[in-house]
Amino acid sequence: IKHGKATSFNVKFKKVHDNILLEINDNGIGNDNFSIGFGLTVMEDRIKGIGGRIKFESSINTGFCVYVEIPIGK
User: Residue 55's CB: how many other CB atoms inside 10 A?
Assistant: First the structure.
C-alpha cells in the first residue's frame, strides 16, 4: 500500500491438499520493472526456511501481488 499508492487490497487464503495457499494483491500503481528489496528478501527467506515457496508479481495493469505456498506438517 505504501510504495504502490494502493487504496485497497485483497487476501485469499485456502488449504489445498497438504498446503496453505495465500494470495495478497493490491490495486496500486504497480511496476513492470520492480526489484526485490530487503523486506521482500526477508519474506522469501522465512518462507523458504519452512519449506514453502513465494512469488512476487507487479505490473502497471494489475498492481502488486504476492503468492505464498506453505506446506502443512504431518
Answer: 12
